[in-house]
Amino acid sequence: MAKILKVKNVEKYYGTKTSLTKAINDISFEVEKGEFVAIMGASGSGKTTLLNCISTIDKVTAGEIYVDGENITKLKGNKLNKFRRDKLGFIFQDFNLLDTLTGYENISLSLAIQNVPYHEQKERIEDIASKLGITKILNKYPYQMSGGEKQRIASARAIITNPSLVLADEPTGALDSKSSKQLLNSFEYLNKDLNSTILMVTHDAFTASYATRVIFIKDGKIFNELNKGELSRKEFFNQIIDVVTLLGGEMNDAL
Amino acid sequence: MLYNLSLKNIKKSFKDYAIYFVTLILGVCIFYLFNSMDSQTAILEVTSRQSEMIDLLEQILSYISVFVSFILGFLIIYASRFLIKKRNKEFGVYMTLGMSKRKISLLLLIETFIIGLISLAFGLLLGIVLSQITSIFVANLFEANMSKFTFNFSKTALFKTILYFGIIYFIVMIFNTIIINKNKLIDLLQASKKQEKIRIKSSMISVILFFISVLMLGSAYYMVTAGVNDLLKYDVSILLVPILLGTVGTILFFYSVAGMSLKIISKCHNLYSKKLNTFVFKQINSKINTMVISISIICLMLFVTLCLLTSAFTIKDYFNNSINTYAPVDYQIVSINQNVRVTEFLEDTFVKENTKDNLVVSEYYDENFDYAKSLGKVYEQIKQEYSYIQFDSPVYIMSEADYNKLARLLKIDTVTIQDDEYAIVSNYNTDIYESVLKSNSTMIIFNHELKPYKKLINGFVNISGNPANLGFFVVSDQIIEKDHLKYEILSGNYNSKDQKIIDKLEEKVKKFHTEETLIKDTRYEIEISAAGLTAIITFIGLYLGIIFLISSSAILALKELSDCIDDKKKYKILRQIGADEKEINKALFMQTFIFFMMPLSIAVIHTIFGLKFCEWILKSLGITSILNGSYITFIFLILIYGIYFIITYLCSKNIIRERI
Known about the structure:
The structure holds two protein chains of two kinds.
Chain A: E1 3-15, E2 20-32, E3 36-40, H1 47-54, E4 62-67, E5 70-71, H2 77-87, E6 88-91, H3 103-113, H4 118-132, H5 147-159, E7 165-169, H6 177-192, E8 198-202, H7 205-208, E9 213-218, E10 221-227, H8 233-247
Parallel strand pairs in A: 3-8, 3-9, 6-7, 7-8
Antiparallel strand pairs in A: 1-2, 1-4, 4-5, 9-10
Chain B: H1 2-12, H2 14-35, H3 37-42, E1 44-45, H4 48-86, H5 88-96, H6 101-141, E2 145-146, H7 155-182, H8 185-189, H9 203-224, H10 228-231, H11 240-265, H12 269-272, H13 277-290, H14 292-326, E3 331-335, H15 349-354, E4 355-370, H16 371-374, H17 379-385, E5 394-399, H18 400-410, E6 421-425, H19 430-438, E7 443-445, E8 448-452, E9 472-475, E10 485-494, H20 499-511, E11 518-522, H21 523-566, H22 568-576, H23 581-618, H24 627-656
Parallel strand pairs in B: 5-9, 6-8
Antiparallel strand pairs in B: 1-2, 3-10, 3-11, 4-5, 4-10, 6-9, 7-8
Helix pairs in contact in B: 1-6, 2-4, 2-6, 2-7, 2-21, 4-7, 4-21, 6-7, 9-11, 11-13, 11-14, 13-23, 14-21, 14-23, 14-24, 21-24, 23-24
């Protein structure tokens, strides 16, 4: 299978020579097309820093990151924006929807930036909306939507451009458990039926159990890795909990 | 400690304060400039007449200064409210750290004090420097000579500026304290997280209101232009109707225009869904909707500014040019009664030696020939149109020979008429007598039936600063009944350019038969009073105009900048979904541009109609075109408004920029 993401010996340091913080300390892993990977770790483990490096919001100190075979650590300026536009889709904890735009317009904006003509925009949005069950809220403004609805609009925006990789940063962080389940079902659908590759950062074991593979990070290093394989979601969840217990400390809040 | 903290705060947020500072400094500077007339005119060589005018100007400017300080006060309070709002979270943090509201108020007090002190110092410095330059301009306006170029500085203006701005800053402090005390901690801390409630108006209502507003504006426009004669049949207070219609219409317009145009634009799918257009249109829509009243006030202020400046410049320009045309001789004495012969004036040896071109002409009257009669067939029609004219006033008659002699002296058109013809000479409201001539009315003057001469003669008898001759009749010499003499008019020029002789001659004219009612005019007097009048008009226009312009641009700039700070996150999202910097900057530019142009474009449309009305009023002065004045006005507008626009765009670009 094609490798969508290749993270090679990435390091990220903060601070000065005298007080150095190693947020990421030599991490390497790969994500193949059609995978749904969750990265788990406590607060301060470096998982969000890692995501920021992959999404080119932050720059690595050392190492290389390849997306679709292209070394993105060397990109600059408008090439960066173009890379994000064509290759990545984003989903955030606090939704990051534009509050002056309706749900439809929030989604269509990413297509407009790619110069997709109006009629195609409309077709594609209606198609994805029916698949994610958000047709009815397309004409609502963010402040008229519930958290779950907002996040599903954000998900639709992230995958509407058919990105190589969808990056999700604590997507269920601001949702209640019912909305979380609905959203994660949508993610599963995106992954299995639409064959989207998703990389998700979370500290919640339940959320992680929807992934096909979970990578655990502690103190900037990879601690463990779990594959779902043929396991049921329940069994996979129990396995994740075991690792979390092993990780100990702050990760207990994941229960 | 508090003092250090406030100093650091100011340093830290200097960029955010930039617009605030610029506005304060400009405000102080202009306030000083216009109040330091006493020192700027002190170095001028002035006549008593000029100094009267200068005193009047100073008085008027000091009244206007009170009004101006109110406007500036509101502006500064508005601006500081913006700045406080921006710092809500900071205050919240102070409070969680245990700082009392009183301490925070004190902190703000110190900050306001420091900012006030700095802006006052810089503004005054700028004002004093600029007043050296403007004093040249002042001398030019009053047509006075500057004795010598010396440094001028007005203590009274300095104290006045400090006092007025001191009061303004004091009120700002009180307002700030009230605002701080009203805030709750939770609101302060979560101020940035609060989601913007977008007021969505039903588009149907928007469309209806939009048409109502257009209708209101249209009828106001009609009333002050085409319908102006109908309108002024009533009392002058009827003018309140178009003013009210215009104001309410403007507010309704801005209330509905965003929703209305968004509805139209969103139907143009290809435009609306191209690049970041959706975002830009929605941003402008929400911006305009959240400040309908402010934007309407700005629009009306710009409108008043444009009319004021244009009229002021037009009047100034006009007076400067018209004196040569309408006061072509140096002096004129008109005797009304038969006791005084104007020729007595020439018996004085000094006068005899120092004057030339002296000419006496006479005007006669016919008791059976009044203004109403002189209108012939069109009397009824004129009466309807010009209700304010006294129709039973007499009309004067001059002989052809006298008129032609005078015309050669005054450098106006001469006329040759047949014995059975009459000619009309007029240069003010000329369309009245044009229509009389067109109607081919015969007149009976001194019992002779006379036919009209083919065209109206553009001319006058009495010198003045502007055309004021409603009309008199010229007939053949033999028709005149010499016992019906009304006026004897003596006109002449001075022989000398020597100021001392001129002064003495002026004095002679003034002293000539002071016990009798005589009309005496000298070109010199006309020049001085015209210059004084234009100076006053120009100063008032400039003072109010600049203050209005600064206020409206500053409000727009502050709103745009504070929005930009709130919108930082939106631009981050745009970057994440892949918009490149060029597109983002373009979106920001479009937003700022449309936001600035919106009130201006409506104000310009208002102005086009408003100026038509000004033109109609100025016609009584004989001014027929206001184009010259509008050029200078637009230069002023583009300069001040443009500077604010550019600063705003650059600052907002800086705010939304992200460094990786």
